[in-house]
């Protein structure tokens, strides 16, 4: 992987001046899901380099700046920072206060036409956090009813498989 740049590319979705809706909504949902769970989270490469050979691909600088702003990078990123001196040098070199970037993932999603209410429900529902339960109560029922039903079915099935006992549904 190459670490020869310290600013997001011109079409990086983290940039406010980049073209909108370059990614499909599922890409934004995946990003939110990964960000909501820093233990199982992932690292993200630059979308422009997906088709390049592995040794020419780059880390997404927009995502890296977001991680640095959080002050708590994902576990996967921390592991890579411990093993890769070049990545650590890049991480220390990037400017987390760089102007022209979205202030948060949620703002970036909204700007790209992804409903953050639905995105938050999907991203956080499997974590079982109190915040996810509060969001379920606040969200407009008609807009997310099918999504919630499917998420609840998947979550219940996973929990039953792990625990071996039926799980009561919380309303």
Descriptive account of the structure:
By secondary structure, the protein is an all-alpha fold. It folds into 2 domains: 114 residues, no CATH class; 57 residues, no CATH class. The chain has 8 helices and no strands. The protein starts with 24 loop residues before the first helix and ends in an 8-residue tail after the last helix.
What is the element layout, followed by pairings?
Layout: H1 25-36, H2 61-70, H3 75-83, H4 85-93, H5 105-111, H6 116-125, H7 130-138, H8 141-163
Helix pairs in contact: 1-6, 3-4, 6-7, 6-8
Strand portion: under 5%
Oligomer: single chain
Coarse structural class: mainly alpha
The profile of the biggest β sheet is: none
- What's the Cα radius of gyration? 18 Å
Please, how many helices? 8
> Which word captures the global form?
globular
Give me the strand/helix succession: HHHHHHHH
Question: How many structurally independent domains?
Answer: 2
Low-confidence stretches: 126-133
| Number of extended strands | 0
Residues in helices, as a percent range: 40-55%
Query: How confident is the prediction overall: mean pLDDT?
Result: 75
Distance between the termini: 46 Å
What are the key terms here?
171 residues, mainly alpha, 8 helices, globular
Write a concise synopsis of the structure shown.
By secondary structure, the chain is mostly helical.
